[in-house]
User: Fold these one by one.
Assistant:
Number 1:
Amino acid sequence: MSISSLSRFSALSVFLIGSSLAGAQQIQPRPMITSPINESQVVTLRGNVHPLAQPMFDVGAAPADLPMNRMMLVLKHDAMQDYVARKLIDDQQDKNSPNYHKWLAPAEYGAQFGAADQDVQLITGWLQSHGFQINRVSNGRNVIEFSGVEGQVEQSFHTQIHQYALPNGEQHWANASDPQIPAALAPAVAGIVSLNNFPRKPLLQVSGTYNGRSGQLTRKQPQFTTPFQGGTAYAVGPADFGTIYNVQSLWNSGSDGTGQKIAIVAQTDINIQDVRDFAICLVCR
């Protein structure tokens, strides 16, 4: 499964998560696995090899007992589910629709747009029959998380895990070829994530350094602009925050954030000077 396809799955889930939905068209997920599982009849899941898992970097096969934790099997939904989900997304952004801002909770999304119970049971049963441990089925019912060891991956998905030594000195494990699954499961399976431990790279683009000591709490023009998907993204700094979230009046009245804390919930390499500049900006009225 390609990265762009996985991104569409993620975006679909994010748009629909929220509180409850009233009046949306209700559909029952249709089972997509209709044939008996025959281990001798397999199909290849194309596009499931990391681009850095290249023969030139290959230093050998992994041991059979290498732990493989938190692998994820991504599930498909049928064309009708896709159509109704996209229509719902449009309605949620349409002020004239009765579904405007009527969001779905994760479990509600799963009940309408996730995999059918029968498919989930068949796939989890197949994984367990190969010795894998099922960690969880996502609330959206589009991902099955499971764990095991290299030998189980090789036996069930017909691909070996190898070690790769990159020119920068990093070493990682990854599948050497595209995995295969029984053909009967293919209609319900989109791909496998995390058959490797290559870290994901951030999409961060550094536009420059914001000067928080300028004393300017409001600027009519953004300081940074960045090309984005055929258009322009306007980056913002602390001064823009006051305008966008209408807190300029709070600052003017003397509220400078004293006693408040800011938590950054993520794994990121931040510029600590930005935090210092933000604090200075709050009090530089």
Note: Residues 224-283 form one domain.
Number 2:
Amino acid sequence: MDETPFMVHKESVEDLQFAPNNANLLASCSVDGTIKFIDFRTEQRKKAEATIQVGNVDVNVISWSTASPNLIASGSEDGSVQIWDIRYLSKARSIADIRFHKDQITSIEFQPYEDSIVTVASADNRISVWDFSVEPDVKSKDDDIPDQLMFIHQGLEDVKEIRHHPYMSDLILSTAANGFNIFKPNYEEVHEDEN
């Protein structure tokens, strides 16, 4: 086995994730603002199979969709979240771009059985759940709450990790400085005229 390290990034690597449908493919993200895709069987240790230039900001975390393995989500230092379809890497545009959190993204994960729902943890002490299949309502009067935002969990201190339960996909585990939480988001709409 070749012990030569992979040197595909120009700066430190922040996260690594194996592809859910390819035993030899992994993705890495870096302070250099990129996501790189590596076939770790290769003898070429300094060149990635493909690259996404996310931006000029550190990419902290990534998550593959197990429901649609062509999708990967990234969370960055500036609080942004992007969803990428690796079938269209030559276009180098995200299929969703969420700019809601006020601080760095610390953890991100697709819901196990849904290809459009992503849970995000941020250093702004909030966890948010997004459905990027929802199209924004251009007539919406409330610009503070995006249409794709399904749920917010607050009251945490220094939230670090989130994970969906592997079988009960709506059940979320989060870790923070003030302990860990297990919760199930309520996705039902509340109307003002309801008691």
Note: The chain is about 0% helix and 40% strand.
Number 3:
Amino acid sequence: MKCRYHFRSDTFALVWQSIVRATWNEAFMADLMRWVRASYDRLAEVLILFPITDAELKAISRDQMVALITSWWPRWVEFFALCWFIQAQGDDILFPFIDETVNHNLSYLGSPPDDKVWPGPADFIAPTTPVLSGAYMADVAKLREALLATGLRTREQAESALDAGQHAALAHNLAEHLRKWHWMRDRDLLFEPWDTRGRVIETALKTEPHAVMPYELNLRRNMLALSFHFDLAHSSDRALGLNHAARFVHDLNVERENHHVLWLKYSYPLRQLVVELERRLIASGSLEKGDVFFLQVPELIEAARNLPAPLTPDLVSKVKNRRRGYLIEARLIGSDAEPALPEDDYY
């Protein structure tokens, strides 16, 4: 999916000024956080309509495909727009304010005592609240430990042992991991989800062990840094602003991190539907595996509406061109490949 933002140069400054002012309004920010969390629920609501099993996917009609895509999409836009907004506020407004204020304080403090350091900007954003990605990594670590405890150090060894009915506890651990996290994958929809036993085993074995995030220690660091710099910031009349920014940047970072995981979970049912559409288009001679992700949304809906008709030759050519451009841009093929033609992709 490609995301593009358009701003009119004569109004952008006013829009950005309005965003900055709203960021410093506690009532607005609290309401925004409620909207963000509510958008998770509104998107989750439509997911119960999607097929789950392979048999249900294969039986779905073209009209149902269109209805599901068009029901899911506006909720997805709301979910993603709100989460983009909190990311922009944290990265472009709140943290720069913290960074500027703290560095100003440090500029006139002088050197700290021996073997000590003054609290810096990073101490304000060290994670203090568990997030979904932390829970996922903890489960990956448990699966890795279970595999190594049985002496299974490769995917082939593990699958062979499980096929032979060995290691019942490991089999249970793996089944539970798949139940909870089968939709995990790289962030791009193009890449395969980790919904196979072999893929999950391989991922666990390749994930190096790491320490659990010290949330309580981070909270102590954060409180010390905020207390320290709050007192110093009175001299620049930024004390209350620093307190406000530190509080909200934590809320924003938590929602941003959870959103990174939830967008994988909530897009997985649509991805399954798109792959089923691709299967039917391949059968009609239109596409090859992976091409479907280079259809734009209006084209995708129209393709579903017209099933079992194949795509037009002109659209197939555009899809192939977009895929070639992606492969070149991602450096997955050499720069000496045939260049992709520029495309006016406005609707």
Note: The two ends are 15 Å apart (CA to CA).
Number 4:
Amino acid sequence: MSTAAPLQRLTIYAGLNLAFFLVVGFAYASGGAQDPRILYLVLLFALCSAPLIDLDGLNGRYALLGIFLFSYFVMFGLSDLFALVNPPNGGGSAAVLTATEAVILVGGFVVYLCYRLVVAVHSAATQSPVRLDWSMRAILLVGLSMWAIGTYATYHWYVYIVTGTTNEAVRRGIQSENTYVISAYILAQMMQPLGILLIAYLWRVYRPAYLWSLVLGIVMLQVVLGFIGELKGLAMLGGILVIATVVLIENRVPKLWLSLAIVYAMFVFPIFQAYRAEVSHNRGIARTTVVADLGRALELSLAAEHRVYSGRERAQTFLERVSLLGSVQMIVEKTGISVPYQHGYTLTPILATFVPKVVWSDKPDVPTGQLVNRSFHVTDSDDVFISPSHLGELYWNFGWWGVVLGMSIIGGILGLIGCAFNLAHGRTITRVLVTVVTIKQLIAGFESSIATIYVVWLRSLVGIGILHLIFARLPVTNRLPARRRDSGGSAPAGRDDTATVFHNLLS
């Protein structure tokens, strides 16, 4: 790479931060919040935009760092940014930087520093690239099978086993089946995102036209499943996985899919909130009834949408939902004063990651979200989960040491995955699976409790490794490329005709 490229990226970084500073200053001068967090916002934006200096592509070594710090700004900076033009009731802090803001800035900087350190060490070492990939037929058959099994298990679990979001509904559902059946359902549900990824990978690498409708259908079905099960994350899963796959394989942002995601956040997310408040909680309509008359449930949700988003007890908007600043502030301000440190208690389930419940019936299971709610007296309900974020949970356990050491480990893990599974240096299904599962669990799941996220991530990596050992038999150099060499009578570059696709599937 020429010396002009880093200088150009540095210029872009400096210009972007200058523009952000001017926008923030103009918003404040136009009558924003009385105590704006301008210094905090400027420092946080400078930190979160720093990957631009080193970014070597949307699927390169620094891609995970860029995605993480972009999400970090959304989680911890977006609410203050909007408060400049729409200030909340009550005054802010008079301090230049609050303790919470210092924790957030230090945590993000540690991730950035450790990620770059791992990249530097990893780049200096001799690496053996992955040279084997799955065959086209294996990707299709395994992908469809895993998606179908996972979808059925997810539907049956949230409609007939765990029929509600309360603790009682969860306990009753789990007790209705034996341990082996419950374990099988949990394992089957873990297959679903892997199946979606396999199908999305096949669609973008081999370009069969018929897979477009299948991918779109899968994404729409996920929205329906999430609606019925009152799980917004499940509803967004299909779209997120498709967008991530396109970005990582083609090193570009899919504008159409991104537009659909924005439409979802603006118009579909509020309907989900209204459904949970009106159909599930207020009317107590069973999910089996919703399945039988989905149109009626949608009609009730639409009718209740305005009411749910008005008044003192209104539901959170999408931007309020993704903001984690409030929960981290609560944890930092009260931990060690009115709420004791956890000293690693909420992290203990990670130790039993690979021990099945049938072997260890009393294996630790800490409902961290509920524990946060009870310990910090957020609500009187036992059925409310408060997301602490990984940052907040690390502080709750060990204070500043937890932030520095814990975020160092997170930065190191992301850096190792970003280098070892660098898609810019070799595109294989194993690399895509590991990278996207890491984005889904460790980055998108940063808002949740650590043990819940890392247990699923570690088990997923083991599953991906087993699949690689079984199905990775095709040398990458012999694989049918996404862009075929242009020759007489061939399909257009970048797309395989359907007849060729079926020939390769059946051969």
Note: The first strand starts at residue 132 and ends at 133.
